[in-house]
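SAMPLE LOG
Freezer: B-3
Tube label: C17
Construct: single chain, 104 aa
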Amino acid sequence: MSVLLVESKTADCTVVLKDGTEIDIESWELWRNNLHHFKGWTCAAGSDSIMIENDFQVWSGVCRNDNLGNLLDDNFSLFKEPTICTTNQCTACISDLNNSKKLI
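STRUCTURE (predicted):
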C-alpha cells in the first residue's frame, strides 16, 4: 500500500511506496483501480485546494471533509496543516485526488 501521494513531473501525481519507490500515475487511475480509499490519511484539502459554494461556504475539497467557514467572514482562513480524511473514498474529482495525502 502506498504511503504518500505527491505532485508528479510526468503524470498528475506520484505514489511513493513504503520502500521509497516512486510510481508516476494519473490520478483518475487511482479511482479506476479502486485505489482511492484514504480514510484516516492526512490530506492537503483545505490548505492546497478548496471548494467554494455559491453562498460562499468553503469546504476542504469537493469531498466536503471539513467546513472552513464562510469566505466573507473576517476570521476566515485556510488550514495551515493537512486535515484527516473522514470519508470512505476520495471523490472522482481530480483536484481531490491530486491533494497530497499521507498514511499516518
